[in-house]
Specification:
alpha+beta, six-stranded antiparallel beta sheet, four-stranded mixed beta sheet, elongated
Length: 327
């Protein structure tokens, strides 16, 4: 006689939106609501129509130097740089400041001591990024003069689905540049997390992990995709990895730092093949297209084709920039 597995029990839960009305989720009774909070955020954002429905880009482009290109092809991986070495010196700090503003407002309006304590912890700690955060940047524009000038004369085109599957333990998402939308997303998220914390606290779901909601991973997962509107023309998507030290300790699989030299800087990074912590085979890094920047020589294109052929990538499309700019 076959063993009959017990069915998973779910409860329909009602939540209050900070912008009026209610929304609903199905709560798995054995786990804290913290685990489903990120998905709930984006479902609620879509319900409130914070995003216009637009067709996702067919390819995302990673601009790089010739040395960066050869390194990616040879290693079959993308390099995710430590966030503090990126061009925007306010990376994460920008989003952290918005969180401080909104938590301050929420602290003043709540009379619940456990929620007030949680909000105060977020406000005090959000600027102290103890988690390792590494980022690889892409653009929806495959022929951008500003990108050619800033990052190099080669752009690699990736299918977004392939890229997300390859970097399975990371998040791939478009950058949000609109400060009004950024504030609304943070407000939705913080209000939901506070409600979820109260529910889980009262249900004694946090006995073994009492500080689960106080950790910053969930907040960093959101603000890592926020940038100042001054960068809007980059049309950036990014692959972001936020390290959870406790999870790596459980898996006994720490990610060692690597280092690369670029523009007279030594930059710590991790490579995308390090991100796969599962037990199945990793999805390969699939390159769909290579774009050569303005004024590229015939000799460079010829050598690039031979290099791709040598690495069994002769099916990758190659084209040149249409921008009439002399480098």
């Amino acid at each position: 006689m076959k063993d009959i597995k017990p069915r998973t029990r779910y409860t329909r839960r009602e939540w209050r939106s900070p912008f009026g009305g209610n929304y609903y989720t199905w709560e798995e009774n054995d786990f804290p609501n913290w685990f489903g909070a990120h998905k709930t955020l984006w479902n609620e954002a879509r319900r409130l129509k914070l995003f216009e429905t637009e067709e996702a880009p067919k390819l995302l482009y990673h601009y790089t130097s010739l040395e960066g290109f050869t390194g990616i092809i040879q290693s079959r991986s993308i390099w995710l740089s430590d966030y503090s070495y990126l061009n925007d010196k306010h990376e994460l700090i920008y989003g952290a400041n918005i969180i401080r503003e909104i938590t301050s407002e929420m602290i003043e309006s709540t009379s619940n001591p456990i929620i007030s304590e949680l909000l105060q912890a977020w406000k005090n700690n959000i600027g102290q990024f103890g988690n390792r955060v590494c980022i690889a940047s892409f653009s929806a524009d495959g022929d951008s003069l500003s990108q050619w000038r800033s990052y190099g004369n080669i752009a690699l085109g990736f299918d977004p689905h392939d890229l997300a599957m390859h970097g399975f333990e990371s998040n791939l998402r478009a950058i949000e540049y609109d400060k009004l939308k950024q504030g609304k997303l943070i407000s939705i998220y913080l209000h939901h997390l506070c409600q979820a914390y109260e529910v889980d606290y009262m249900a004694n779901k946090l006995e073994r992990i009492s500080d689960l909601y106080h950790k910053l991973e969930r907040l960093i997962e959101l603000i890592v995709f926020f940038k100042d509107s001054a960068f809007y023309t980059e049309r950036e998507f990014r692959l972001a990895y936020i390290e959870n030290p406790e999870m790596l300790q459980i898996l006994e699989k720490a990610l060692p730092k690597k280092f690369r030299i670029t523009n007279s800087k030594i930059i710590p990074y991790i490579s995308s093949e390090q991100l796969f912590l599962g037990f199945n085979e990793q999805h390969p890094l699939v390159i769909r297209e290579v774009v050569l920047g303005p004024e590229t020589s015939d000799l460079l294109e010829r050598g690039l084709k031979e290099f791709l052929d040598f690495h069994a990538m002769n099916d990758v499309a190659i084209r040149r920039s249409a921008i009439p700019y002399r480098t």
